[in-house]
């Protein structure tokens, strides 16, 4: 299975509009961070976790020609604002896009994209098939790929992470119960959010993310959902243990399930 980082930035992305800080003005391409998302590729099928505002740009950059489904972590705009652009795949592949989400996310989608779910369909709008999931649901994707949802708390908002075999992806976490950590244990490759060094009300900071990684004990961990307040890619790397790395847009890795 191949995992590609489509975006590794927080809700504003990097560079932030109108910001003159050293991170936003960095010439290092690893410091250009689109909104947080990953691409899962397995046996010719592609799946995206979250379709944020940069979804179109991410699909073009990675030259994605086929997409079988979108899994949503939660309903915040930086994770679902690009759903309209799945229609390009509808047109090309002549099929509805499979969307996997909680009832809470479904409510947001029906509100934000009312025209998609209208009784009278306007020509050319996206075609989606909603699959309701929750923390107790195992998702069976194509070619025997099983996804295990993991519930984490984004302050008071439930958010889903996803485990696929030996790989786990979690974003927007502030707390994770021991019950949900049990689903993660044994993970070999972990991608986890770490917003910045300073504490934040709804996201892991660096200290919390490293403590979580230490508890889970993956072989490798990558931090994502990074703010411009954290520092540059090179600066962040200096704070990390030898098995922890800074994710960046376009980075990909092969994972043995």
Which features would summarize this protein structure in a list?
alpha/beta; Metallo-beta-lactamase, Chain A; 7-stranded mixed β-sheet; 7 helices; 14 strands
Task: Give a structural overview.
With 257 residues, the protein is of the alpha/beta class. It has one domain: Ribonuclease Z/Hydroxyacylglutathione hydrolase-like (Metallo-beta-lactamase, Chain A, 4-Layer Sandwich). It is built from seven helices and 14 strands. The strands form two sheets. The chain has a seven-stranded mixed β-sheet with strand order 6-5-4-3-2-1-14. The chain has a seven-stranded mixed β-sheet with strand order 7-8-9-10-11-12-13. A hairpin with a 2-residue loop joins strand 8 (146-154) and strand 9 (157-164). The N and C termini lie close together (7 Å).
Number of domains: 1
What is the CATH top level name?
Alpha Beta
The helix-and-strand class reads alpha/beta
What's the CATH topology label?
Metallo-beta-lactamase, Chain A
Span between N and C termini? Answer: 7 Å
Number of strands: 14
Largest beta-sheet characterization:
7 strands, mixed
Inertia-based shape:
globular
In terms of DSSP E residues, the strand content is 25-35%
Query: Strand arrangement, largest sheet?
Result: 6-5-4-3-2-1-14
Rg calc: 17 Å
Q: Classify the oligomer.
A: single chain
Strand and helix order: EEEHEHHEHEEEEEHEHEHEE
Total count of helical runs of at least 4 residues = 7
CATH superfamily: Ribonuclease Z/Hydroxyacylglutathione hydrolase-like
CATH architecture: 4-Layer Sandwich
Mean pLDDT: 97
| Poorly predicted tracts of residues | none
């Amino acid at each position: 299975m191949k995992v590609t980082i489509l975006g590794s930035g927080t809700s504003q992305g990097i560079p932030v509009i109108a910001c003159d800080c050293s991170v936003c003005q960095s010439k290092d391409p690893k410091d250009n961070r689109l909104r947080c998302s990953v691409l899962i590729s397995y046996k010719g099928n592609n799946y995206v976790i979250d379709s944020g505002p940069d979804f179109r740009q991410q699909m073009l950059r990675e030259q994605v020609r086929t997409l079988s489904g979108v899994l949503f972590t939660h309903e915040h705009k930086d994770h679902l604002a690009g759903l309209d652009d799945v229609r390009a795949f509808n047109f090309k592949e002549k099929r509805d896009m499979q969307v996997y989400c909680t009832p809470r996310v479904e409510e947001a989608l029906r509100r934000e994209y009312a025209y998609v779910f209208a009784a009278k369909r306007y020509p050319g709008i996206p075609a989606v098939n909603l699959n309701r999931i929750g923390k107790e649901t195992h998702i069976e994707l194509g070619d025997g790929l099983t996804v295990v949802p993991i519930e984490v708390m984004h302050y008071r908002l439930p958010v889903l992470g996803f485990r696929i075999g030996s790989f786990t992806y979690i974003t927007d976490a502030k707390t994770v119960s021991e019950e949900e950590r049990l689903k993660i244990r044994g993970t070999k490759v972990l991608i986890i959010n770490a917003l910045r060094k300073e504490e934040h009300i709804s996201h892991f900071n660096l200290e919390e993310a490293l403590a979580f990684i230490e508890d889970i004990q993956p072989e490798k961990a990558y931090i994502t959902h990074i703010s411009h307040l954290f520092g540059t890619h090179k600066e962040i790397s200096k704070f990390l243990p030898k098995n922890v790395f800074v994710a960046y847009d376009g980075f990909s890795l092969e994972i043995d399930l």
